[in-house]
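Q: Can someone sanity-check these two? First one:
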Amino acid sequence: MAEKTPLVGAFLEAGRTLGHPTLDYNTPERLGFGYLQLTTTMGRRVSAAKAFLHFNKKRPNLHILIDTRATKVLIDNDTKTANGVEYVRNRMRQIVMARREVILSAGPIASPQLLMLSGVGPQEHLRSLGIPVFQNLPVGRTLYDHISFPGLIFTLNVTGVALLESRETTLNNWLQWIQFGDGPGAAAGGAEGLGYIKTPSSDEPERVPDIELLSIGGSLVSDGGPGASKAVRRGMMISDAVFDAAYGSIDNTDTWSAFLMLLHPKSVGYLELRDTNPFGYPRMYGNYLTDPRDVRTFIEGIRYVQALAETEPFQRLGARIHRARYPTCRKLKFDSDAYWECAVRTLTATLHHQIATCRMGPKGDPRAVVDPELRVHGIQRLRIVDSSIIPRTTCAHTHAPAVMIGEKAADMIKATWNQQYESYKGASHGNVDNLNYDNNDYEHYFLNKYMLDD
C-alpha cells in the first residue's frame, strides 16, 4: 500500500468542512470525497491483460499473437457478414477466418479506425479515400473525452509533507517497493484522493456531479529537480516555455494541487482516417472548450478548490495560491474569471478517457454504430467490445467501465451461442446438415461445428 501524505488527510477534512462527507465515492446516493481506489496488487497497477489474459494464456483455445497488427476486418460483400481478420506479423500479411463471429476490441481510437479501413463508416469520408463502403454508419463522428486542468497549485510553508521525486527516489524506497509493494513507489502518479462536486451551473440531474477533483500528494512541480524525470509535465505535453514561465519559481518544492476533471463536456469532437495506411494514426479533433459552458464549469470548479484551500486543514499547512504567469495571460488580472479562462485554455490536458466513437444505440439512432448487444448495425457477426461503445459521458474514469463491458459482452456472446446450441439440439435430424445424429450426439456435433477452436 502506498504511503499517504498529510495532504490527502487535509483534502478529506476540508471536504467535510464544506459539506462533502468522506465516503466510498462509488455510492450513488451521495456526493463526497474518498481515498483513491485502484486496481493494484503489491503496489503495481493491474491491467486488464494482467487480470484476464496472463492467467489463461496456456489455454488450448486461446492464441495470443504478439507484435501483430490487425489491419482489416474481412466482410462478405453479398451477405454483409464478417468472416475473418487480416493482420500483419513479421512483415507478412496473413488472414484468419472466423467460424462464428469477429469481436473487435481495439479501443476507442483503433476500433473505429479498423472499422473504417474495413469499409464500415461515414460513406462520403470513406469514398474520399477510395475505400469500398460495406455499411454507411457514423463511425468516429462522436467523440467525448475527459479533460483536466492541472494548473491550480498551492505553495506550502511546511516542508516534507508533499511527494517530491527528487526526495523519494532513493535506493531504500525502490527496494521497499520491489520487495513489499509499498512506500512512495506505490503511489499512483502521486494521486491520493478523489472527490466529486456539482457546480452551480450544472444542468445534470440531482446527485450527478460535473467535476471530479483528483487530490495530488504534490503538484505538477513534484517531478522536477536535478535528475528528475519530469514525466507528468511531459506526459501532459506542457512546453518548457509555458511551464518555466508559470511554475519555474516553485519547481521541486512542497506544494498541493487538485486536478479538475470535466465529467460531462458539452463540446463534442470526432475522429476520421488520415489515409488508408493501417499503421498510421487517425486524425482526432477533440473540439475541447468550444462550448462556453465547459469553461464556465471549470471556473466554478476552480473557485471550489480555492475554497477548500482556505479551510483550516490546509491553512495549517500554510497553503497559498501560486500566481502562475502564463505567457498567454499576462495582460489579464490574476484570479479574474478571464484569467482563469485563459489559464484553462493554455493548460488543458486530456486524461485519455475517449469514448463514443463506436456509439451504442438502437436501430434508427442516427449516431449509433452498435446495438445493445454490441453488434455492428447492418453487418452480421461483428461486435465491438471496448469503451468506444459508451454512448455518453460517465462520472468515472473509463478503465472499470471497459472491464464491465468485456464481462457483459462475454455473457451475451455465450448466451447467443447457447441459444444456437439449444435450437440445434431441438431440431429434427434432417435439419442438421442432413446428418443422422442420435439425440445424444447433438452436443458433440454442435461443439465441433460451432464452439471449438482449432
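And here is the second, same format, sequence then C-alpha cells:
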Amino acid sequence: MHRAASRSGLRKLQSGFLRRFQSTLVVAEHNNDKLTPVTLSAITAAAKLGGDVSCLVAGAQCAKVVEQISKVAGVKNVLVAQHDAYKGALPEELTPLILATQQQFKFTHICAGASAFGKNLLPRVAAKLDVAPISDIIEIKAPDTFVRTIYAGNALSTVKCNEPVKVFTVRGTSFEAAAAEGGSAVSQEVAASPPVGKSEWVEQNLTKNDRPELTSATVVVSGGRGLKSGENFKLLYDLADKMNAAVGASRAAVDAGYVPNDMQVGQTGKIVAPELYIAVGISGAIQHLAGMKDSKTIVAINKDPEAPIFQVADYGLVADLFKAVPEMTEALSK
C-alpha cells in the first residue's frame, strides 16, 4: 500500500514538473482581419499543457488579428511575421517560418486547430522536424499523453508521445474557446523567411451568405440524399432563415451535386457542435456522425425508422420531410 501510494505521488510530481517546463506555440488561423474560432480552442488546449502559450500570427497586413489575439486570455506572447508570401496561408511558405521560429524559441509543443489549415500545415512541419504528428486531439491527459479520435471519430486512442517536439492538431469542438478578452500578451516581430516560391496564392472567392458561418453557428440545419435535388434544399433555407441557422449537408448530398462541398459536415468536411443540430433526410453514416455528434441537441427527421441517425438523436421524427419541414417553417412564422 505504501509503495503504491509512493509511486502515485511520484507520478504526480513528475507530471507537475513536466507541465512547469512546457512551452507551446499555437499557429493562428485567420483571414488577415479576424481569427478563426478553432484557434481559440487550440489556445485552450495549449493552456492545459502548462507552461507558456505563444501564438504565431503570419500574414499580410494582419495588425487587426494581432490586436485580437493579444487580448485572448492565456496567451503570453504573440509572434508576428508579415510578408506578401503569407497571403492565403500556403503551407509551403509557412513551414519554413515555423521551423525558424521553433529553432529560435525551442517550443516543446506546436499545435493548431484540426481544420483544413492545420491538417495541411502541421504534418509538413512535423516531417521537417523528423517527428510524428498527432491529429484530432480531443483530450490532453499530460504533456506527453493525448486522446485522439480514429475511425471516423467513432473510436478513441490514447497516445503517449516521446518525440522531442510534440506536433498536433486539436478538434475545436472538444475544447471550449479561450476568452477573447482578459489577456495582455506581449507582441514581437519575428523575421519572415525568404519566399519558397513553389506555389502561389492567386485569389479566393467566397460565397456570399447572410446566414451564420457553419462552424460557429448555434443552430445548424443539414440535408441529405433524402432531399432528392438541390432545388429542394430551398426547404431547408426557408427553415434556417426562420431560426437564424446555418445550412449544412451530408457527403451524399454533396457528392450528388445538390450543394457545394463547403457545406459538407463530416469527417472529410466541417466539424460542428451547435446548440441545436437538425438532420433532415440524412441516414447517419459514420462519416457524417463524426462531424456533428458533439452537438448539444440533435433532432432527426427521416421517413426510415431504422435510419442510424436515430441512434444518436435526442429527438426523432419519422415522417416525410417534404411535409414535415414546411409545417415546421409555417409554425415558426406564426
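A (reply): Looked at the second one. Confidence is low (pLDDT under 50) at residues 1-5. The first strand starts at residue 23 and ends at 27.
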